[in-house]
Amino acid sequence: MKQIKNHKNIAAIFSITLFISILFFFPFFFKNSEKTLKEVSGPLVTMEDCNIFIRITGQEDSIPLEEYVVGVVAAEMPASFHLEALKAQAIAARTYVLKSTNYGQTPIEPTVLRQVFYDEDTRKSNWQATFEENEGKIREAVESTKGEVLKYNGELITAMFHSMSNGRTESSKNYSGVDLPYLQSVVSADFQTENYVVKKKWTLDEWNRLLKVNMTLDDIKKIRTKLNNTGRVEKVNFGTKEWTGREFRDLLDLRSTDFTIAVVNNKIEITTEGYGHGVGMSQYGADAMAKQGRTAHQILAHYYKDTTIEKMMCTK
């Protein structure tokens, strides 16, 4: 019995020693594991702790993200627009640049192919006497939405936008062949805006030179267009010659792919409706919605389906 008792005592001492060792070493193990995780993914921090700079093609110095957004909103949307529309533009512009540059890792062009950007000197030159008023309004829109971005299923979206639609926005599938669930066609109340309908004319020689064809005025009347489900031109056909609506728009520098062709007084006349590619948020539509009492978040929810607006998080 004594021998058994001694074995019990030894087992008890071993168990106590093991328990104390675990208590002593566990914090160090947990700390090292946590460090390893941080080294792999980086700790999440709030927007205020991020230090993201945007590199603009052709400019030597990088620009802090929010200053970049100020320059884009000033260039892309009239300062006279409703504040809520400007806020919506700020969120869309911020999302677009972060997505397209991988959070500032690659440069972005300051053109309509990406996002137009005006620096402070350009803004002063453009606005002159109204600079202080307009600058204050733009900065309010940007600062009040600081760090806000659009996401779909937890990922930044490609937040495309355009000037004005033709009563409906264009889907990404119609535009590029890529069907994105958040870039679907929606009704847009901007078809009553000024300069919604624009006419443009060419002589027959100009027309043939631009399209690299040899048509007569009678041939122009034989041109046929095929429309897609948003009322925009999908195909332009003449005999064996065919263009997509986008190709035709680019060749003739049209405002949109919603157009009709006619011969008027021995000239070719094209009438366009809307302005831009039509995908994503319509800027004039956003202004119309804001004037109807919609907030920036409501505007964005309308144009970018099933998206969420979140405060940007980054790793540091």
UniProtKB/TrEMBL annotation:
Keywords: Membrane, Transmembrane, Transmembrane helix. The chain crosses the membrane at residues 12-30. The keyword Transmembrane helix applies. One of its GO terms (cellular component) is outer membrane-bounded periplasmic space. It comes from the Bacteria. The keyword Transmembrane applies. Residues 62-152 form the Sporulation stage II protein D amidase enhancer LytB N-terminal domain. It holds the Pfam family SpoIID. One of its GO terms (biological process) is sporulation resulting in formation of a cellular spore. This is Stage II sporulation protein D. It comes from Ureibacillus thermophilus.
